[in-house]
Amino acid sequence: MNLAEELLKIAKKDLKATKILYENKLYAQAIFYFEQSVEKANKVLALTLNNYSEKDMIKFSHDVTRIYKNWTIELKKRYKNLSRNLNQIPELKNTEFVKNFDIESKKKECEGLLRNLAKIQTERNDLISISTWELRDILTEINEKNKEIKDWIKSVSNFRLTENGWEEVKNDFFKQFENPNNINFTSSLRKEMDDSKLSIQELETGIKKIYMQIIHIMSVSVYLYPLGILTLPHAVIARYPKEDLSPMDIYNLKLPIIRRLPDLIEKHSKALKILTEYCNRYHLNPAQ
Asked: pLDDT digits over 43-80, tens only?
């Protein structure tokens, strides 16, 4: 059994149940199944990007912030290792490419995200009463990021690699290694690249595929990360009474997240569509 494929199927059915329950004004049940669908979708993405097992998914339980925390910690480790390695090669560390990449800034971004995730954990139950304005801002931000992604897709689609362009790419790359100690390495690498049997068209296609896969991941993450945060408290509170307060008393149209649930459902429907395309193209049928 392919766990990611099965979870994706269930996520779609959970969303279908959400719509039916909402239409029948069963709001506590609707938000619970919505949380379940978002949770499973996040786990599908995690399974396709990392070597996670079924046991890992059980450990994550209903808390998708653990997934993003793990990713961020791993990314921070990679930046630290890269920084340490670059310190041993001053010639490379001082190149424009490395300076523009700005590893220290990226490490700080990881630290900021980890602090934000920790804050979300401590305030997760407060998300139940998130305001209409906060929800509106989140939906607006999703729309704005989608516009950016569409621009990136257009840019990648319009990318053309010419003979001169490929020579420029190679020359820029080798400039990063201009040092007498690297002569043997660069000569060997240049020969290997010059002897490549790939045509310019094949190289262009390969570059586009790499970028499109990254964009695909970003496209679905734009939806799944904020939806995963928004739904954090509802796996438990929507199901069980607490302090003599029934979920039926909490979840009604007075609650902003219930009023805006149709909008969130629409966003998640788009996320599942993109996630399905991503899985079919890169995970379930990677050869295509």
From this structure: 998 888 776 777 887 777 778 888 888 878 877 887 78
Which amino acid makes up residue 255? L
Q: Which domain holds residue 115?
A: 65-129
Q: Quick: pLDDT tens for 187-203.
A: 655 665 566 666 777 76
Of 206 and 229, which is predicted with more confidence? 229
- 245 beta partners: 242
CA 170 – CA 194 distance, rounded (Å):
9
**pLDDT score of 256:** 96
Helix axes 27-49 and 200-230, enclosed angle (nearest 10): 150
* Residue 121 shares a structural domain with residue 136: no
The answer to whether the CB of 247 falls within 8 A of the CB of 178 is: no
C-alpha closest to that of 10 among 49, 51, 38: 38
In a domain, 216, yes or no: yes
Q: Which residues pair with 242 in a beta bridge?
A: 245
Q: Is the pTM of this model over 0.90?
A: no
* pLDDT value for 53: 77
**123 and 142 share one domain:** no
